[in-house]
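Assess this:
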Amino acid sequence: MKALVVYDSANGDADKVAEAICSGMRHMGIAAECKPAGAVIPADLQGAELLVVGSPNGFLAGRKAAKVIKGAAGKDGLKGIAFETRMANASPGSVEKIAAAMSASGIELLDQTYFSLAAGKVLMEGEKDMAFAYGRNLPNRL
């Protein structure tokens, strides 16, 4: 299986989560590649069976990631997962936009989740480990 993990990051936390998810998938034998949304080219999507897209929660967050999703539109059998980083008490934002864009593009949405930020908008302790475990458990969901 080939997976592409794409992130749009404002202060470096969404990329830490994306890298941890990717690392967890690799640990389980999935050929996973992790890239910032602005660096994704059409060839990166070729052969991908799973697209994981994440962004920080916010007004402008996820715009580059949305372009990647549009580029994957109509790809048969592509499954998707959306995630965001947000303050623990914040309402969902980017994750819902990413999930809706995936569904509108014909990508089968498997899950949407978030990873918590603490004061100062840095990942809460243990969230990176949770992201690794999330990636490691993905084969069970496919």
Summary: Helices lie at 13-27, 42-45, 63-71, 94-104, 127-141. The chain has a mean pLDDT of 91. DSSP finds five helices and six strands in the chain. The first strand starts at residue 2 and ends at 7.
